[in-house]
Amino acid sequence: MERIGFEQLFSALPSPHMVLDRNLCFTAANPAYLKSTNRRFEELDGRYVFDVFPNEGEGRDVLLRSLSHVLETGDADTIAYIPYDIPRPEHLGGGMERRYWTAVHTPLRDAQGDVRFILQNTVDITELVRLRAAASDPFGNSFGAAVELVQRAREAEEEIRSRRDPLDTFRRLFDEAPGIIALLQGPDHTFTFANQAYRRFVGDRHLVGRPVRDALPEVVDQGFADLLDHVFATGEPMLGFGARVLIADPASGATNETYLDFSYTAVRDPAGEITGILVQGYDRSDSVRANQRQRLLLDELNHRVKNTLSTVQSLARRSFSTAGDPQAARRVFEARILALSNAHNLLSEHHWESADLSTILQLEIEAFGSERVRADGEAVRLNPKATIALAMVFHELASNALKYGALAGQDGRVAVSWRREGDAVRLEWREDDLSSPIGSIVPGFGTRMLERIVTGELEGRLSVDFPPRGLAWTMVVPRHEIEDLGTQLRQH
Fold first, then answer.
1. How would you label 6-18 residue by residue, b for 16+ Cβ within 10 Å and e otherwise?
2. Which of 30, 112, 380, 492 is most exposed by smallest CB count within 10 Å?
3. Is residue 98 in some structural domain?
4. Which CATH number goes with the domain that contains 265?
5. Per residue in 289-320, pLDDT tens?
6. Which one of 283, 298, 328 terminates a domain?
């Protein structure tokens, strides 16, 4: 038996039909639609509907509101009466002609249930509207029923719009709220509403009509689905403050660590029965990470105070032990203390846009005698986070070199080099000609801090090696974690 294909059926429909994608651009139109709008499909294909049919009046607002309603809710929508101008054929004088339409907008979903297209079925009711305008004929006419139908359709449309507008206002208020808001229905917690902030929080995935366990499977093992079950069963609200939530990115497949203040509140019907759950929350990731960062800085400050006192003692011994002229020794000592102070001042500033890697290194090593430290590397502009992080790293390594490593003896040397390797920056800190060989590193706060900064904060790799009479630290850090890419773009 011969089967009729979709395109054949679509083309044969006597009523005008067309299809828009999610960007409201034409993807299909049948011959009836092209005839009613006096267009060829080549004029429509891939173009924005309001570019093809511009209208800055009531017609555009009504049509855009209906199309947006379908995309946001996944529900079909009907416009009973809409005035909308279309181009008049050239043989009839050209220009624009006021026409009147009814339209039905139906969502077309993909296999996952997401709205991918909108099917529009339109009917040109212009002639009926014109008959209505002539309905004052005192002798009556055979079109009275049709005219009455148009009048009733227009009145029904106005009533629907008057009822829906307040709901749309409330929906927009919730949809544009800065905090995340969602409404879940039934014991399986099916999404019936999720505002823009909530959709952005979960990666702009399709939610409405899907249960939580299906739409957000990653939160199940984290216990949030169990909390929803408890609220639905008992009616007891649940609160969370700074709760750690792992959310998958549908586009990349990566998992994002976020921190959330949230509340789950039972929704009841007039009889008092629980019908759903209102979810409210606020993304606290920035403030939580700022607090974690502050704790790290406080730990580092305590460590730095001890380290700095030890460094000052070492500088004093080196400055005064071999100098014959006390005044010259004092000047050398003061210069080194000033260099150390400059490095500390740099760490105290939080508002600079970027800093050069070589500048940060120079500030940290000047206090220890830059003539014994060789630096070699291409220009790398650091972002603020990396500026502070690498200043800590360089200070720790330089302090250890002065107390235990190459700078503790007379002949030791330090060589620091860095270069880009693809999507990473490779940095090496090498100490040679140590007065005594080092076979291992004793774990302490300093080494733990290096590990935390390089592998944790900068998401890089850290390793240490022990060549003969030497020590070598190697750090490999992703470029996007360390470089100020905005500065690079501005320079280009």
1. eeeebeeeeebbb
2. 492
3. yes
4. 3.30.450.20
5. 777 777 766 776 666 566 566 656 655 665 56
6. 283
